[in-house]
Design goal:
- With 260 residues, the protein is an alpha/beta fold.
- The chain is built from eight helices and eight strands, in the order E-E-H-E-H-E-H-E-H-E-H-E-H-E-H-H.
- It has a five-stranded mixed beta sheet, sandwiched between helices. The chain has a three-stranded parallel beta sheet with strand order 7-6-8, with helices on both faces.
- Helix 5 links the parallel strand 6 and strand 7.
- The longest helix has 19 residues.
- The two termini are 28 Å apart.
Amino acid sequence: MTVMTVTGSTSTRTTGGPPALVAVAHGSRDPRALSTVTALLDRVRALRPGLPVHLGHIELNAPLLSDTLAALGDGPAVLVPLLIGNGHHVKHDIPGTAAASPARARVAAPLGPHPLLVDALHARLLEAGWPSRPPRDAAVVLACAGSRDPDSRTDTTRTASLLAARLGVPVLPAYASAASPTVPEAVRTLTARGHRRVAVAACFTAPGRFATQTAAAAPWIASAPLGSHLAMARLLLHRYDEAVIPITGGASTRRETTTP
């Protein structure tokens, strides 16, 4: 777990409430992406009433992260990437935008790998028709966006291992861009190993081009993006809590409700 401190201002002004949670989405031309992320953040607000929750995009959608941080002024904020693993966006783009803003910001760890992410992946597979007792010839391709950063591949491999342990079947990572194998290549690999029922698990936070593209390559079932699943909302708050302690000096901000 990596948390970055990025100070864009030397101001020491304090606020009476907890640091803001700024969820950082990539952005997409698919209109479903914005509505999905909005629903996810509504769920976060329901779990943690009183916590300021904001949204910023890296590109393609408004509000952009730079605009969200500018609106927050020089108050404290925790930036939680709505990204599955480490990569250029998490290591460079988000910290760079934060450093250019007046906010006193920390960048939290990406969403994966984590058991709560696996909870959401498992639930979406069940919704798609994954059997409670999978046959021996079943397997799963974990479809992710992809990155040239080796840490991203490490994170994805770890998530695949956690999902395999949960399902009791082989899980092979695959990528929509920038890395290999592709989803069709992973499907062929598993088929060659004797797996006749190969599902594709969408490891994306929201609908978009990659999710649509990888689902089309599924020879059996394909799960929906993780979206506003309760486990995702809890995972956002978990990453926030990990990063907020250095800002608050250890004071807890957790006041979650039991919203189902």
